[in-house]
């Protein structure tokens, strides 16, 4: 795992997402499941149960793929990275509308953009996977 940036990032960010998601469930208990209302985490990030559920699923996938192997960590990093980047853009667009069912605010959206960009960039840039050995001449 120490030789693969994708595996390392998957386990680190996956663990962080799992912790934030599980903690978010406890904070968001008094709020409805999927509305623009939510609890405030660390005085900065908004969260409701729907967003916390997404964080738990993303965290579990990243950790499992990071522990499984380089190729799975790379694929998960790219797919989740692109998804988080798109989710960050959605957060900016939907922040003050009725479409904001995840209680997203500007810090949430910025963080999703940055983490998504980092995961996708690491997935595209590192861990070349050789599918077959070169034949000796």
UniProtKB/TrEMBL annotation:
<feature type="transmembrane region" description="Helical">
    <location>
        <begin position="40"/>
        <end position="64"/>
    </location>
</feature>
<feature type="transmembrane region" description="Helical">
    <location>
        <begin position="76"/>
        <end position="98"/>
    </location>
</feature>
<keyword id="KW-1133">Transmembrane helix</keyword>
<dbReference type="Pfam" id="PF14325">
    <property type="entry name" value="DUF4383"/>
</dbReference>
<protein>
    <recommendedName>
        <fullName>DUF4383 domain-containing protein</fullName>
    </recommendedName>
</protein>
<keyword id="KW-0812">Transmembrane</keyword>
<feature type="transmembrane region" description="Helical">
    <location>
        <begin position="7"/>
        <end position="28"/>
    </location>
</feature>
<keyword id="KW-0472">Membrane</keyword>
<feature type="transmembrane region" description="Helical">
    <location>
        <begin position="110"/>
        <end position="131"/>
    </location>
</feature>
């Amino acid at each position: 795992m120490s030789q693969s940036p994708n595996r390392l990032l998957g386990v680190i960010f996956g663990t962080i997402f799992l912790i934030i998601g599980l903690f978010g469930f406890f904070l968001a208990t008094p709020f409805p499941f999927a509305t623009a209302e939510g609890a405030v985490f660390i005085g900065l990030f908004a969260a409701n149960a729907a967003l916390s559920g997404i964080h738990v699923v993303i965290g579990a996938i990243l950790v499992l793929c990071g522990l499984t192997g380089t190729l799975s960590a790379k694929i998960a990093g790219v797919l989740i990275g692109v998804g988080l980047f798109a989710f960050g853009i959605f957060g900016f667009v939907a922040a003050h509308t009725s479409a904001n069912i995840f209680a997203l605010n500007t810090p949430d959206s910025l963080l999703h953009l940055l983490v998504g960009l980092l995961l996708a960039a690491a997935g595209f840039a590192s861990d070349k996977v050789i599918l077959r050995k070169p034949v000796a001449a």
